[in-house]
Structures are given as C-alpha cells and as structure tokens.
Amino acid sequence: NAGVTQTPKFRILKIGQSMTLQCTQDMNHNYMYWYRQDPGMGLKLIYYSVGAGITDKGEVPNGYNVSRSTTEDFPLRLELAAPSQTSVYFCASSTTGDVYGYTFGSGTRLTVV
Amino acid sequence: AQSVTQLDSHVSVSEGTPVLLRCNYSSSYSPSLFWYVQHPNKGLQLLLKYTSAATLVKGINGFEAEFKKSETSFHLTKPSAHMSDAAEYFCVVSETGRRALTFGSGTRLQVQP
C-alpha cells in the first residue's frame, strides 16, 4: 500500500528557478496538505485542499502555489526559488479533515543556493 | 489561537530507563492533542491521540500520554526506553473545526546504550 508518495526526495535549486513538488495519494482522501519543516522547528502549513478544485492558504503560503485537479494529486509549485525556501516539505492527506487519520509522505528535502 | 510548547529540544536517556517528553498547549477551545514521531529521513507517524475521551491515552510501542487540563499539559512517557525509540517527537494540537494541525518545535530523543 503506497499511502502518500512524494517526489523528488531531494532537490537543489538555484535562486530564481522554478520547480514542482509532486504529491499523490491512493487512499481516496479528500483532504490534502503541504507543510514545511525548517531546522529545529515544527511543521508549518503552506496550503491545503478539501477536495478536487478547492484549495486554501495556510500559515506560510507566500512564494508557493498549488492546484488540485484530481483527488489523488496535490502538487506544490515554487515559481521563483529563494534561499528562505530551503526546507523539508511534507505532504499529508486525511479522510474527513478532522485530525484523525493524517497520513504523511516521507518528505522532499529542498535546498536553494 | 492554538499553540504548542515542547519544553525540551533534546532529551537523552539510557536504554531501559523511563522517558518523559514534556508538552504544554494553549487552546481557546477543547483541543485534540497528538504525539507524532519522526525517524531520520522518514515521514511522521502517529504515536497516540487525545480527543476528549479518557485522559490517559495509550499509543503504539509502549508510549502513553496524560491530558491534564488544569496544567494544560500533554506529556509523553514510556517506562523503559529502547534504542529504536531514538527519533524526533512532535506534540501537536488541533481545535475542533480547524482544518490543520499546529506543531510544536520537536524534541529529539537520544537513547544511550
């Protein structure tokens, strides 16, 4: 059972470059989330989605965009990478949006140089 | 607004001795509280959760946590540490109706042989 799959696992970007972090889940979860984890910190919510076609900002959305065209996929887009976006990014999904049953991906470690 | 404070950034114990990881929370409403564990280069795994039922919550791998409303605490304990318990632990809070989790900054548990 795959659960939540994130790609790539590691990436180095140059300042100003763009990239998309991929996230897909095979559990038919309606709710999906993107978090970032900075060194020595807890996770902070970037964006979330309550279903296909519906997305909303979290705590730290600046510099990111998301889309949700299908239930399974929730890509995170960085348009103009900045060193402040160096972080580990986690995608998660859940059934009801309540906190039961959060499933996390294994993360994408992004470095912007 | 909800917040979480993990009182220790690092905890070191000897194998076979008790573990105590401390967490205080702030919430305007009746919160749900969680402990997640993150092993190196892995995603987050749910250890246990409190959702207004029994105040003493048992989780996986022998971990327990007690919800104390008067102290606004949710400390994580384990009677006897194992080497495999070495990881990062996150205390997490969510209020009813909120769509996402608020993470503490994490406690790194080291287990010495």
- Can you give the helix content of chain B as a percent range? under 10%
Q: Please give the largest β-sheet of chain A.
A: 7 strands, mixed
Mean residue pLDDT of chain B: 90
Q: Report the end-to-end length of chain B measured between terminal Cα atoms.
A: 41 Å
Q: β content of chain B, as a range?
A: over 45%
Q: List low-pLDDT spans of chain A.
A: none
Provide mean pLDDT of chain A, rounded.
91
Note the total helix count of chain B: 0
- Rg of chain A, rounded, reads 13 Å
List low-pLDDT spans of chain B.
Answer: none
Largest sheet of chain B: 6 strands, mixed
Largest interface: A-B, 25 and 23 residues
Tally of DSSP β-strands of chain A: 11
**Would you report the number of β strands of chain B?**
12
Ends apart, CA distance between termini of chain A: 36 Å
How much of the sequence lies in strands of chain A comes to over 45%
Write the H/E string of chain B, N to C: EEEEEEEEEEEE
| Multimerization status | heterodimer
Helix content of chain A: under 10%
What general outline of chain B do the C-alpha atoms trace?
Answer: globular
Structural class of chain B: mainly beta
Mind explaining what this structure looks like?
The complex is a heterodimer of chains A (113) and B (113). In chain A, a hairpin with an 8-residue loop joins strand 9 and strand 10. Chain A is mainly beta. Chain A is built from no helices and 11 strands. Chain B is mostly beta strands and 113 residues long. Helices cover 0% and strands 55% of the residues of chain B. Chain B contains no helices and 12 strands. Chain B has strands at residues 3-6, 10-14, 19-21, 23-26, 31-38, 44-50, 56-58, 64-68, 73-78, 87-95, 102-103, 107-112. In chain B, the strands form 3 sheets. In chain B, strands 2, 5, 6, 10, 11 and 12 form a 6-stranded mixed β-sheet that branches. In chain B, strands 3-9-8-7 form a 4-stranded antiparallel β-sheet, with no helix packed on it. Chain B starts with a strand and ends with a strand.
